[in-house]
Specification:
With about 220 residues, the protein is mainly β. It has no helices and 21 strands. It has a 6-stranded antiparallel sheet with strand order 1-2-9-4-7-10, with no helix packed on it. A 5-stranded antiparallel sheet has the order 11-12-20-15-18, with no helix packed on it.
Length: about 220
């Protein structure tokens, strides 16, 4: 039996964000298509989904209505899963397996993103503009700003740590911000690798510098 850690859930919209721990030999068989989009990011271990072998830091996006077959793991896996309701199948929304190590780094797409960061893009939805990417932060990266976004944002820490005004986020930590929720400043002393997932709509960010903001002294 798999164990489920629910990160967030919106019953009204039918959306969920989960971490699944799949034991060795776990298998899910589907006789048809799901009525929801499903994103899979492998955190540890490996699995096979619809014939595609996924290893650590592999990612796929399966849109609603896509015929599904078997998802299974021989040795076990920990998987980050995002689900949301979908409509008719649109093949152009699917993302075939990607592995983070094979992707090139690129500049952050958010204008004025504080220096010392790079991004690997995993998905940009061609229909609604939603997306998922990984942000990498150099050691001693700092953002002395508050910020807010036009759409909901989710964050999951893969490696390193990020200090925020709400506390210090380390591997496995999750944080979500609804649209227009002000947050920050933040920093990362050892550097960090984190997933960011944005809801549908243009992802726009407004920054406001915090005068003379001082993070706690390093001990």
């Amino acid at each position: 039996m798999c164990s489920v850690r629910e990160l967030s859930a919106d019953a009204a919209r039918g959306e969920r964000s989960l971490v699944l721990d799949l034991p060795p030999g776990w298998c899910r068989t589907s006789a048809g298509a799901f009525d929801h989009d499903e994103e899979l990011f492998v955190l540890a271990g490996g699995l096979v989904d619809d014939g595609d072998a996924l290893t650590r830091y592999s990612y796929v996006f399966r849109s609603a209505g896509r015929p599904r077959t078997v998802t299974k793991t021989e040795r076990g896996a920990r998987v980050l899963v995002f689900e949301r309701p979908g409509t008719a199948y649109r093949h152009e929304r699917d993302v075939d397996p990607l592995n983070l190590a094979a992707l090139d780094w690129e500049r952050p797409k958010t204008p004025n993103f504080p220096a010392g960061a790079a991004r690997k893009s995993l998905r940009t939805d061609p229909l609604d503009g939603s997306g998922l990417w990984v942000i990498g932060l150099l050691p001693h990266w700092s953002s002395p700003f508050t910020e807010w976004h036009t759409v909901e944002e989710e964050n999951y820490i893969l490696e390193g740590e990020i200090e925020t005004t709400a506390g210090c986020m380390r591997p496995g930590a999750y944080l979500a911000h609804p649209p227009e929720m002000v947050h920050g400043p933040m920093r990362s002393r050892p550097g960090a690798l984190a997933i960011t997932r944005a809801a549908a709509g243009p992802f726009l960010t407004t920054y406001t510098r915090v005068p003379d903001y001082a993070f706690p002294q390093e001990v």
